[in-house]
Amino acid sequence: MVDLLLDARALLGESPRWNGADGRLYWVDIDAHRIHRTDPATAADEVIQLDGPVGCIAPRAGGGLIAGLKDGCALIDAWGDTPRPFGPQMLAGIPEQRCNDACVDAAGRFWVGSVTSDKANPAAHLYRLDPDGALHTLFGGLLTSNGAAFSPDGRIFYHADTPTHALKAYDVDPATGLLGEGRLFHQFEHGTGRPDGGTVDAEGCYWSALWDGWRVVRLSPAGELLQTVELPVQRPSMITLGGPDLCTAFVTSAGKNLTDEERARQPHAGGLFTFRVDVPGIVQPGFAG
Predict the structure, then answer these.
(1) Which of 31, 56, 246, 249 could form a disulfide with 11 if both were Cys (CB 3.0 to 4.6 A apart)?
(2) 19 labelled binding-site residue
(3) For residue 222, with 0-12 CB atoms within 10 Å meaning exposed, 13-18 middle and 19 or more buried, which class applies?
(4) Which is the catalytic residue, given 101, 105, 161, 196?
(5) 3-276: which CATH architecture?
(6) What is the pLDDT, as a whole number, of residue 119?
(7) 250, 239 contact by CB (below 8 A)
(8) Where do the annotations place substrate binding (predicted)?
């Protein structure tokens, strides 16, 4: 059963990340320029208001957060602190791009992609930000970098360029963070939703939130559809697994750009949703910088 945890009315909810250290879910509303911290036990919600879009966040190993902002990445040392730029601001001077989806690998590196509003120009990229602040461009030719997640052993990296409706899998060297060739992991049929944010569980299965698809799905390590969970919103944006036993799914959603008729069908668009799963998630490493 899917439950509404928080009727957040987010414009573009994204990047849910469970932090076991304080038992809170951190997530963002990109277009409202907000970082949220939600207590799932009470639904109490705290907000950091920023002065620009925040595409993604992740906890840091030493406390605080790393955030992908308009121009690049920034560190937030403690809740409520002002973000301070960290690493090259690779998107500065590119008004049509901002940071989007991201994840952290077992070595504490931040894999962050960009999105471009110029949909005729696939100019977005996927980057890897190392703990020492070094930035590496992994590949480009993207419109909307999304779906970043690692297999439990850290040897497979999953990624989607959302408009292609395709999820890809890449071999990766966990020690160096170098990628091998990509291969098609799962192709979604056009018109049934596009792969947005995702996560991997302890069995190595990949959960994907399907934008415009009204659902999230669980795929086997071979890319086969195993499970579908229908949602009361058209645009689920990302899923993560958390809670004390890592068996609670948290799903963000978007409420912007809906017609009156569409909004009437989904009054809780932009909400934060939960449901229980049988297979737990994996503990997500923190950024080591």
Answers:
(1) 31
(2) no
(3) exposed
(4) 196
(5) 6 Propeller (2.120)
(6) 85
(7) yes
(8) 98, 100, 118
Structure token digits, residue 171: 């071999």
For residue 218, give both structure tokens: 């669980």
Span between the terminal Cα atoms of the chain, in Å: 38
Q: Which of 17, 34, 210, 113 is nearest to 218 (CA)?
A: 210
Residue 21: name the closest of 80, 61, 81 by CA: 61
- Residue 105 among the catalytic residues: no
Place of tokens 């928080």: 6
The neighbour count for residue 106, using CB atoms within 10 Å, is 16
Alpha-carbon span 173 to 187, nearest angstrom:
25
Cα-to-chain-centroid distance, residue 259: 25
The domain ranges of the chain are 3-276
Structure tokens at 20: 């076991």
Candidates 148, 153, 155; CA nearest to 238 is: 148
Can you list the positions of beta strands (E) in 235-284? 236-242, 248-253, 272-276
Cα 59 from Cα 80, distance rounded (Å) = 14
Q: Is 146 annotated as a binding residue?
A: yes
132 is in an annotated binding site: no
Task: Find out whether 118 is annotated in a ligand binding site.
Answer: yes
| HEC profile of 199-243 | EEECCCCEEEEEECCCEEEEECCCCCEEEEEECCCCCEEEEEEEC
SS3 262: helix
pTM for the model: 0.97
Summarised one tens digit per residue, pLDDT across range 1-36 is 999 999 999 999 999 999 999 999 999 999 999 999
Tokens of 44: 């109490």
